[in-house]
């Protein structure tokens, strides 16, 4: 599977080299990316990271659109420097001109959201609840206080948790 991504990255680089008539250094490629992002270009490290799960679920579009998208970031950085916008004119030029692809900023792949624990906090003035993340709940345990916007009373942990 990763071989197809490696081959597509190489093909994208060869296309860019033919278009711009200059060589580009090849990036290190990693498959240690999870979550919602399909790919990430680490410009100063010359490294590309790809999400193998999203590749497995969307392999055709991933190879056609996602891989050139990330390579275009690398090429734009190497041609125009670090001060350009990530999805600005230079990147769009490469997507349209070199790869003949629409310059979509984001993918539309289905991403399975992981379950998260919410810690339920309450206020004296309302029956409403305030679901806190585990990180925010830990900050409360360390002494941080959060207040109700309406009555300005400190929110308190109800003892309840739920998964979302």
UniProtKB/TrEMBL annotation:
Binding site for Zn(2+): 69, 73
Domain of life: Bacteria
Keyword Membrane: no
Subcellular location: Cytoplasm
Record-linked InterPro entries: SprT-like_domain, Uncharacterised_SprT
Cofactor(s) it depends on: Zn(2+)
Note on how the cofactor is bound: Binds 1 zinc ion.
GO molecular function: metallopeptidase activity
Domain SprT-like: 7-158
Enzyme active site: 70
Pfam families given in the database record: SprT-like
Xref: SMART domains: SprT (SM00731)
Chief localisation class: cytoplasm
Keyword list, A-Z: Cytoplasm, Hydrolase, Metal-binding, Metalloprotease, Protease, Zinc
NCBIfam families, sorted: PRK04860.1
Family, as annotated: Belongs to the SprT family.
Protein name, UniProt field: Protein SprT
Lineage: Bacteria, Pseudomonadati, Pseudomonadota, Gammaproteobacteria, Pseudomonadales
Gene: sprT
């Amino acid at each position: 599977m990763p071989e197809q991504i490696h081959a597509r990255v190489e093909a994208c680089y060869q296309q860019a080299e033919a278009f711009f008539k200059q060589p580009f250094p090849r990036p290190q490629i990693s498959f240690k990316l999870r979550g919602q992002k399909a790919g990430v270009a680490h410009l100063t490290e010359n490294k590309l990271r790809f999400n193998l799960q999203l590749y497995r679920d969307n392999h055709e579009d991933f190879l056609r659109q996602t891989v050139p998208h990330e390579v275009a970031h690398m090429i734009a950085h190497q041609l125009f420097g670090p001060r350009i916008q990530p999805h600005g004119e230079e990147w769009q030029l490469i997507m349209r001109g070199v790869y003949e692809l629409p310059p979509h900023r984001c993918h539309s792949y289905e991403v399975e959201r992981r379950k998260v624990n919410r810690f339920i906090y309450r206020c004296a003035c309302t029956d409403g609840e305030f679901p806190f993340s585990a990180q925010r709940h830990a900050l409360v345990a360390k002494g941080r206080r959060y207040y109700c916007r309406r009555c300005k009373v400190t929110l308190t942990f109800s003892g309840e948790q739920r998964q979302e």
